[in-house]
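hey so i finally got around to running both of the ones u sent me last week. sorry it took forever, my laptop kept dying halfway thru and i had to restart like 3 times lol. anyway pasting them below in the order u listed, first the sequence line then the structure token line for each. didnt double check formatting much so if smth looks off just lmk and ill redo it

first one:
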Amino acid sequence: MRVAVSVGENEKTRGSGSPYFQALLAAGAEESELELVSATDAPHVRARDYDGILFCGGEDVSPSFYGEVKQHDNVHDDKPRDEFEFALLDRALERRVPILGICRGVQMINVGFGGSLYQDMKEDAEPQFEHRQTELGKTRQEATHSVLVTDEDSSLGAIVQGACRVNSLHHQAIKRVGRGLKVTAHSEDGFVEAVESADEYPFLMAVQWHPEEMVDHSPEQCKIFVRFLAKCREAAARR
């Protein structure tokens, strides 16, 4: 089994110390089965070489990819990463590779399916609480609000019974849901917190929070990675 962990350039320098990498190890992966990849690897990264792809957090998706211009000074994009990940997502979908998205990952996947984003939740919507918890002095590992599962028959519904407490580290969120995706969870104040494929697909789950930061003290969050890896192993067995 081989799993690509798509990250930004700074995160890649952390190597096996990356929390995404560590979360997959905690869920049962072997270090040799994981590879951190970034936009600079584009010439030699091929979706067909992997049995699963994890799209991780990082900078904002450029508004140009959902037909808008940048509206706020706190929108910081990374176009080379956008181009790399949209291409990788397209090839992964063609080959029906299991996909997991986290934070930026859920936003990028939604845009890849033709959806759009709130460029800044505070400016463009009406959140009832702070979704970037570090602004409140909380650590990345702390749970700060509840997520309500709205589809109990989904992959997320098989892990979370009704609701769970999560961390929150984002200023953007899904606005228009991409065609081919279904919403499987909302925050308490009504924002999309998780999506999955609306069609038959081996595994496509993406969440707005950061479960990799919570695996050490939340078996429930660890199960997201366990389920993803199980699907990756099934894909590897079919190759």
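and the second one:
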Amino acid sequence: MKKIGILLALTITSLFTQAIEVTTEMNRIITVTGSAEMVVPPDEIELEITITEQGNQLSGVEKAFWTILLGHQITENDALFNHVNSTFYWYYWWHHRNDSRQSKQITLKLDAKTDFMKLVKDLDKDYITSIRITGSSNKHIQELREEVKIEAIRAAKKKAAYLLEAVDAELGELVQVDEIKSIDNSNPSWYWQPQQDTYSNSVLSYSKSGRSGSYMENVPEIKLRYEIQTKFKIK
């Protein structure tokens, strides 16, 4: 009976020890975040312009406005949409209380054929009350997003390797990848988001080689930034 008790105790101890060893092995994981960014020149933008009537006549102002645009080879076909504020009663009511003049917003899609700075100078008129870029794009944007994300994973792997080297450990295989944060100001909604100064593990330069097309000058560039969280086994 005594022998059976000893064997049972040894068996339980052995199982308990094995359980601890397995758990310890599973926890030999390093979690690292890598980030990468690239600044991209846009080849197309959306420009929102607000014109406001002068002398109680919006039609005359609009005619003068399109005359200027025609001088830059911009036609009404380049307009994405027009909006007169009086089409919505509540907005017109609010607007009327603050300014009795009618206004109209016109959004244009422009590319590298337009000299942006010259256009803005020519639109320096009393009846132009607002000009802003609401969106920008690059025909290679999807390809560039992929490049930045791949570089962020590479940066995470490099970071994990040198951190483990400091404690004489080696990097094992990758077990998990999660995209946790991004900045992509090709999206118009980005213009409403607060911006923070961030440091990236890797900064990619934009190369025009192998990519056809012209790019717009004197307009804000597109910033692509991605953070990738990775988990690696520790050997």
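quick thing i noticed on the 2nd:
The helical segments are 2-26, 58-70, 89-98, 116-122, 141-165.
anyway thats it, ttyl
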